[in-house]
Amino acid sequence: MKLIAAMSGGVDSAVAAARAVEAGHDVIGVHLALAANPQKYRSGARGCCTIEDSHDARRAADVIGIPFYIWDMAQEFHDGVVENFLSEYSAGRTPNPCLRCNEKIKFAAVLDRARAMGFDGVVTGHYANTRESENGKTLHRAVDHSKDQSYVLAVLTREQIDGAIFPLGDTEKVDIRKEAEARGLAVAQKPDSHDICFVPSGDNAGWLHDRLGSEVGPIVDQDGKKIGEHKGAYTYTIGQRKGLGLTVPTADGSPRFVLKIEPVTNTVVVGSREELAISKIWGERAIWCGPDVTVEKRRGFVQIRAHGSALDCTYYFDGSNLIAELDEPLLGLATGQAMVIYDGDRVVGSATICQTE
Known about the structure:
Elements: E1 2-6, H1 11-22, E2 26-33, H2 51-64, E3 68-72, H3 74-90, H4 97-116, E4 121-123, E5 129-133, E6 136-140, H5 150-153, H6 158-162, E7 164-165, H7 173-182, H8 204-212, E8 217-220, E9 226-230, E10 257-262, E11 267-271, E12 277-288, E13 298-303, E14 311-317, E15 322-331, E16 338-343, E17 346-356
């Protein structure tokens, strides 16, 4: 097959590209330029799309022996990921930009461009597996559960999964580094990327303040009594305990937690830890990674954070929303995050959390 290898400049994508070549595919390496001005987002080793990363990707392609190109995806990234990040926080939700990047950039814009150029699919260094089924390929967890990335890939449609190749899903991360060393790849011991690539120094609150302003508003308890002030409701998230700056303590000295963010009134509502407990989750804009889910209730697992535990649940689709009823209550869940449903290690689908109970 003719394949595009998306090369981030890290060890995983480099080994994935090398494995694709070794498997006999015709491979071209591509690094995505996500900012018109590379210094605009970040330099250094904390992100996943830095100037240094592009140099590392080029050197890896040279060692592997494949052509290498840089694709300018700056406008697509800004419109589909950065602007979405801002609008979600403005609406009082907590987004996951890595999911949006996978959905809008790596497996929509890139795959579309690759197919238009006559390529059969895209190779990435994500830790996940695909398997053939009667209805096409299905998405599954990686063997290395500590590095599994099926959660952030659960935004892929069945057509995108058919065009995706994940060569690392059957290997532990420690063995990937050993393989990279054996292949002579300089990135063998390069640290994994962390933080949001377009937020300098990882200071999310400061970055949001610069772009959305610092409008002072009230922090209230569930009775509506003002007990403090904030400088931007969007800098808070559901379940947050630290940094609230409350002026009125509770009678028994127990801590308060953020229960709700109301962007229309610029209000943050706080309460006790027990009031964070939820047992039912609604998700909008459902995406199926396999057969469509029906109104029939089924047993499975739901995961609501990239590195969180999968929780036992009953799930179904009501025609508008994907719904998960939890066996045990969960504390502190923000709208805007993704809920991903699993049947064993198979990804059923995902949705954006819009309501909890």
